[in-house]
Design a protein that fits this description.
By secondary structure, the chain is mainly α. 52% of the residues lie in helices and 6% in strands. It has three domains: 4-58, no CATH class; 69-263 and 381-396, Citrate Synthase, domain 1 (Orthogonal Bundle), CATH 1.10.580; 266-367, Cytochrome P450-Terp, domain 2 (Cytochrome p450-Terp, domain 2, Orthogonal Bundle). The strands form two sheets. Strands 1-2-3 form a three-stranded antiparallel beta sheet. A three-stranded antiparallel beta sheet has the order 4-5-6. The chain binds carboxymethyl coenzyme *A.
């Protein structure tokens, strides 16, 4: 028997059978039987907004795949730009395709001088780098007005290249500006992640080349953060993109969504929590207070993963590689103890709360010298590939304008009173 559900409208006795396809049921059928009755689904907990073939997550099994390739294999064998190509094109590139792709990205890393001189320098001296990034990405649409021709394949592709290429430049510029350091131009003789680290840390030396272990660590972290299907920022990208806004405006909206502590800010919250715990002796007491309802264990639990986040396992390994170069982050021992205590506790096990990707990333970034304000910026650089992949997929599907319904619970037809009678 075909899989289906049957819905009966108890007011009329009418019944409708809806097939279950790919794990979902079509709202079109629901609409036919029940026009004007809306699903009340805050946070889209039960709503699939699209069919997508980009990223697969099985949260119970702790499985994450980009275009069918397991994340661990990509992290081990690929580079971020190769993975960005995969996300956007659906296939891993051949040597020739990869060379052309890397060439294109590399030759679009520079930003217009006016973005730097007139725009970035207009921010207040202590502006948050994520605020700068969000605004700078939006401002790019004014520098590339042709970007609005989103259905012209060449124009679309050009903006995709520009956005992926310029993100690290804008990110590093935002940091340099916020700490009063001069802007560093891209060094296009360096690979993507190394170029970013050069723009971040170069001072007076003619050429800055980060330790290869650190460049590789950043590149792998970029792979791990490149996509995560319909997360909050990708949803923002799709909602704005569904109005056919240009990709810079849509990406700025996505970056704005990532700015929030519930999405891009959890690794910062982990560091603050570890600082608050202060020493290994306090871990057990801290876990007890979390169980009693005082706050949450930051970097634990996930809306989708009800198992060890597969990215967290890889990040743990990266942490070791990075600490071998930078020296161990002193907060690591507290983090490991916290993980050990929580994973031996029925409170966390019974609720399927395991470390997520953010549990160790903050420790790595901190050891590499990134200020906490840069954590969401570091997330935005690679997620741009994911945002653009979903945006392009959505445009190719010719989806409708995103426009949900509401259940109105306010007052109706009130009598207007002139101001002197209120
Ligand atoms: N510490 C302690 N208890 C928790 C935690 C936690 N981190 N997370 C969930 N719980 C408890 C929660 O209190 C609830 O218990 P009860 O059933 O007794 O009321 C139960 O587990 C289910 O929680 P929920 O809030 O319904 O779960 P959710 O799916 O809405 O929350 C989450 C997911 C990520 C918001 C949450 O786990 C959390 O706040 N974690 C800490 C913040 C964090 O690490 N966020 C980063 C997420 S990964 C980033 C990314 O992938 O982009």
């Amino acid at each position: 028997m075909a899989e289906s559900i049957t819905i009966t409208d108890n007011r009329s006795g009418e019944t409708i059978e809806i097939p279950i396809v790919d794990g979902g049921v079509s709202a079109d059928e629901w609409r036919k039987l029940l026009p004007g009755i809306w699903f009340h689904d805050e946070g889209f907990m039960t709503t699939a907004v699209t069919e997508s073939s980009i990223t697969y997550i099985d949260g119970d099994a702790g499985r994450l795949e980009y275009r069918g390739y397991p994340i661990a294999e990509l992290a081990e064998k690929s580079t971020y730009l190769e993975v960005a190509y995969l996300l956007l094109h659906g296939e891993l590139p051949t040597n020739e395709q990869l060379d052309a792709w890397v060439h294109e990205i590399t030759y679009h890393t520079f930003i217009h001088e006016n973005v730097r001189k007139r725009f970035l320098e207009g921010f207040h001296y202590d502006a948050h780098p994520m605020g700068i990034l969000v605004s700078a990405v939006a401002a790019l649409s004014t520098f590339y007005p042709e970007a609005k021709h989103i259905f012209d394949p060449e124009v679309r592709y050009k903006q995709i290249i520009r956005l992926i290429a310029k993100m690290p430049t804008l990110a590093a510029a935002a940091h340099r500006f916020s700490v009063g350091m001069p802007f560093v131009y891209p060094d296009n003789s360096l690979p993507f992640a190394a170029n970013f680290l050069s723009m971040m840390w170069k001072t007076a030396e003619p050429r800055f080349e980060a330790d290869p272990a650190l460049s590789r660590a950043v590149d792998v972290l970029f792979i791990l953060h490149a996509d995560h299907e319909q997360n909050c920022s990708t949803t923002a990208m799709r909602v704005v993109g569904s109005s056919h806004a240009d990709p810079y405006s849509a990406c700025a909206a996505a970056a704005a969504a990532l700015y929030g502590p519930r999405h891009g800010g959890a690794n910062e919250a982990v560091i603050r929590m570890l600082l608050e715990i202060g020493s290994m002796e306090n871990v057990t007491e801290f876990v007890k207070s979390v169980k009693e309802g005082h706050g949450r264990l930051q970097g634990f639990g996930h809306r989708v993963y009800k198992n060890y986040d597969p990215r967290a396992k890889i990040v743990r390994q990266i942490a070791e590689d990075v600490f071998a170069v930078t020296g161990k982050n002193p907060l690591l021992d507290i983090a490991l103890k916290l993980e050990e205590v929580a994973l031996a506790d029925d409170y966390f096990l019974s609720r399927k709360l395991y470390p997520n990707v953010d549990f160790f990333t903050g420790l790595i970034y901190q050891a590499m010298g990134f200020p906490m304000e840069m954590f969401p910026v570091l997330f935005a650089i690679p997620r741009t590939a994911g945002w653009l992949s979903h945006w392009a997929e959505m445009l190719d599907q010719d989806t409708k304008l995103a426009r949900p319904r509401q259940l109105y619970v306010g007052q109706l037809e009130r009598q207007y009173k002139p101001i002197d009678q209120r």
